[in-house]
């Protein structure tokens, strides 16, 4: 818990220094079966897509998170994403769980994950 609080403090300091940059909030045990969860509270790409009208591409950009974590062999599970819900993206890591297939895109698979 001490490590998570330190990381949250560093994220807050970075966001104050560089407004509009990524800002995360870490959680020691945020979802059942997960060893680690963090929420991205500020995501520059969301602001960009709203400004330039690229909303339809955001689900595909978010799907790249599954690709990235999958290449690392880490199962990523998420139920909340900025572009759809507006306030944060969650990243929950479940070691030992199967990797979610990232193609077709996770948001099209109908299994409750975005």
Quick one: overall form? Answer: flat
What portion of the residues fall into strands of 2 or more residues?
Answer: 15-25%
Helix residue percentage: 25-40%
Radius of gyration: 15 Å
Neighbour order of strands in the largest sheet: 1-2-4-3
Kindly list the characteristics that best describe this protein.
alpha+beta, 114 residues, 4-stranded antiparallel β-sheet
What does this structure look like?
The protein is α+β, with helices and mostly antiparallel strands and 114 residues long. It has helices at residues 2-17, 44-52, 58-71, 82-85, and strands at residues 23-27, 36-42, 76-77, 89-93. The chain has a four-stranded antiparallel beta sheet. Strand 1 (23-27) and strand 2 form a beta hairpin.
Give me a quick take on this structure.
With 114 residues, the chain is of the alpha+beta class. The protein is 38% helix and 17% strand.
Task: Produce the secondary structure layout.
Blueprint: H1 2-17, E1 23-27, E2 36-42, H2 44-52, H3 58-71, E3 76-77, H4 82-85, E4 89-93
Antiparallel strand pairs: 1-2, 2-4, 3-4
């Amino acid at each position: 818990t001490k490590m998570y609080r330190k990381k949250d403090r560093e994220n807050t300091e970075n966001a104050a220094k560089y407004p509009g940059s990524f800002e995360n909030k870490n959680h020691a045990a945020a979802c059942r079966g997960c060893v680690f969860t963090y929420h991205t509270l500020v995501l520059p790409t969301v602001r960009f897509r709203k400004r330039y009208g690229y909303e339809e591409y955001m689900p595909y950009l978010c799907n790249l998170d599954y690709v990235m974590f999958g290449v690392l062999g880490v199962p990523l599970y998420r139920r909340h994403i900025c572009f759809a819900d507006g306030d944060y993206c969650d990243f929950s890591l479940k070691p030992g769980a199967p990797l979610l297939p990232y193609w077709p895109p996770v948001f099209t698979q109908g299994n409750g994950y975005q």
